[in-house]
Design goal:
Elements lengths: L4 H22 L4 E4 L5 H4 L3 E5 L25 H16 L4 E6 L3 H10 L2 E2 L15 E2 L2 E3 L16 H16 L6 E6 L1 H8 L8 E5 L4 E12 L5 E6 L6 H18 L4
Parallel strand pairs: 1-9, 2-7, 3-6, 3-7
Antiparallel strand pairs: 2-8, 4-5, 8-9, 9-10
Length: about 260
């Protein structure tokens, strides 16, 4: 059946909206490295910055005390599973680290502890990789990774925090590191340092020498509304099938509503 001129005109009006909706679904997020394909040499001398695993809510509750975990927003069961899985993925990718640092906030320290990041005193090479002894690294909590999402006294002083972190990065530029460092911190810290905003459990690789960062792609644990776990690609630039379906429904709805009934 031939479409009427008014319906055709309405379709043209709806087309930009449809493209915008679908375009959001397919927009890449600038991933440069896949964790599963990342080699040790690609992160050597750099810093892998993780945002803490899933801790429902935002900020911290009233009565917050950085020394008392029960007063803070903490990891839930999914967040704890996510942290364990992130560590497994790092181990599976054969990535070793020289040090692990964490924000003093409990959700970051718990993430660092559950990740059981592995390190080595010797830098692995193709010739000695099988003979290198590895061990689980203990994390070191440091104020240079503190959250300043909220103003003091609940949050840290932003200027003081970033001064310490930038000084640490400047010091790394002067050293020849056989392995990279891993840091577990907060979104605000990562965004301030790298310009990248990442979700809970995601990471960026930061180069202190060039002051540039690349998003690290990996699979992370998420929770459905009925309480079951599933995996999604973290900051991958790949479109979620669920998102595409929702975008498609909006697009169809837009087209139908723009076509006059005859």
């Amino acid at each position: 059946r031939t479409m009427s001129s008014s319906a055709a005109h309405s379709m043209k009006k709806a087309t930009p909206f449809v493209l915008i909706v679908l375009g959001v679904g397919f927009a890449p997020c600038g991933v440069a490295l896949k964790l599963s394909e990342t080699k040790l040499d690609q992160v050597r001398g750099k810093v892998v910055l993780f945002r803490h695993a899933i801790a429902p809510g935002g900020g911290d509750p009233e009565g917050f005390d950085v020394q008392r975990c029960e007063t803070q927003r903490n990891l839930d069961a999914v967040g704890r599973s996510q942290a364990c899985d992130l560590g497994w993925q790092l181990t599976s990718a054969n990535l070793l680290f020289s040090k692990v640092f964490s924000s003093p906030w409990c959700r970051c320290m718990d993430t660092a502890k559950l990740m059981t990041v592995r390190g080595s005193l010797v830098s692995p090479t193709p010739t000695n990789a099988r003979g290198v002894d590895t061990f689980v690294l203990n994390y070191e909590k440091t104020p240079m990774l503190s959250s300043f999402y909220e103003a003091p006294p609940k949050g840290a002083d932003k200027a003081a925090t970033m001064t310490k972190l930038n000084a640490h990065m400047d010091n790394l530029k002067l050293q020849t590191k056989p392995l990279s460092e891993l840091m577990v911190t907060h979104k605000v810290v990562i965004t301030e340092l790298t310009g990248k905003a990442i979700c809970e459990g995601c990471a960026v690789i930061y180069d202190p020498s060039t002051r540039t960062a690349e998003t690290l792609e990996m699979d992370i644990v998420r929770l459905t509304s009925n309480g079951t776990c599933y995996f999604v690609s973290c900051c991958s630039g790949r479109t979620s099938p669920i998102f595409v379906a929702i975008a498609g429904l909006f697009a169809v709805s837009a087209i139908r509503s723009s076509i006059p009934s005859t």
